[in-house]
Amino acid sequence: MKKVILFAFLTAMGCQSEKIDAEHQKNNEKAGVREEISLKIKQNTQVEGIKLSFDAVADSRCPANAICIRTGEVVVDLAVNDTQKIQMCLGDCQQVQPTKYKSPVSQDSLEVTVKNEKYLFVLKQVSPYPGTLEDADAQKNYEVKMEVVKK
């Protein structure tokens, strides 16, 4: 009998949890609008009413098919509405010192406030990976993929 009561209790708790999770997800969908974007170097776009520009890249990742002591990192310079300059990093970012913008380099995500609205920028990918292009001027082929979430 105790097992039946315990089973019924756990089942009821499971149903309640799903209802709470569904409400939480519904509220998150209203508050946070997610948008995936791709930007080539020196390109800009409008995202959720803000202008985002990909200005520069510093890539020190270990090239493809090479053996390296450390994996390295890639740091991208972004401009938000031409007024805020930010940097984001993928890879071994603990080695990166404070930047020319006098703020620490975030691993791969950064919360930014623009016109009293909060946004979360998540850097997903920077391509091409070093050593994968034969082009001598690979700098102009860089592209970032990121997600912008309005909080």
TrEMBL record:
Recorded superkingdom: Bacteria
Protein name (record): Lipoprotein
